[in-house]
């Protein structure tokens, strides 16, 4: 371009085309520079957009995960709502059972108060009869002593009069009449004394007969009670014999004295009072053996099947208030099952002792397992007087 300019200097006045070329070259350079700047900006924008797409994909994945977590939380909430409804229903049933047991306790308390009042009245009547008999004996004894003293005095007077009569054999008929009168009085006193002695002997004999009759009645009652106890022992031995045959070979059921001891794991799940399927099978066999024995036991034998619930010393949590509550509910569950199997409710009794009557005093897992148990005992029912 410089050479062209030098060549053109020789032609004065012709500067239009070189200037146009210079301007066009400058404009082209500017255009190339702008194009390069645009390309660089375009590349930078493409890099930034690719980074934003990656961030947006990450955000979309996090949003999907949050949606899944929200679905899981909703399902957990539904499960918790169902558990709450079921727990509320169980609580209502427990309250109803508690109200029923409270009503039964009040009825039994009223019956006990009535029977205690009858007992006190009968005891008062018996004391009054004893006091009247003692008073009659005392009066008879005092009257007998008085008549004996009067007879002694009369005999003394008669002896004195007889001596006076022998000394005054020549007195008039007045002395003889007095002697006859005194003789008649003495005979009358002797007759009265004999009658009183016979009456006293009769009273004493009656009192002795009453004592003998009371003693014989007591012996008869004791003998009858002993016979009933022997019969109950015989039926209990037969019942235990049948249960030994039914439960033969089981290590989780033991015989301790006059009781059958079931480990709680046989009948119940941990912390529960509902009898499991395997436990129902075992209790059904026991109920069948008991119903067979019931047909043979006379009605006048006062027997009862005592069912006791025991737990370990680990505190409970959840539906039951404490181990007292859990052990009582387990014993009641066994009683209700026995009633459904045909055992009369009047022959069943349930008690809960919690962890306060252990058979193993250690703190090992085996010791606690021994203490978690249900005990069955066929025993004599104590009747209230």
Structure characterization notes:
- The chain is of the alpha+beta class and 385 residues long.
- It has helices spanning 2-8, 16-167, 173-246, 264-267, 277-296, 323-340, 365-371; strands at residues 253-256, 259-263, 303-310, 348-352, 373-380.
- The chain has 3 domains: 2-74; 119-227; 247-380, 60s Ribosomal Protein L30, Chain: A (2-Layer Sandwich), CATH 3.30.1330.
- The chain has a 5-stranded mixed beta sheet with strand order 1-2-5-3-4.
- Residues 1-6 have low confidence and may be disordered.
In round numbers, the mean pLDDT is 77
Q: Indicate the proportion of strand residues.
A: 5-15%
User: Total number of helical segments?
Assistant: 7
- Could you give the order of strands across the largest sheet? 1-2-5-3-4
Radius of gyration (CA) equals: 57 Å
Shape: rod-shaped
Spell the H/E element sequence.
HHHEEHHEHEHE
Per DSSP E runs of 2 or more residues, the count of β-strands stands at: 5
CATH fold annotation of the largest domain: 60s Ribosomal Protein L30, Chain: A
Number of domains: 3
Classified in CATH, the superfamily of the largest domain is OmpA-like domain
Could you name the CATH class of the largest domain?
A: Alpha Beta
Largest β-sheet summary: 5 strands, mixed
Please bin the fraction of helical residues.
over 70%
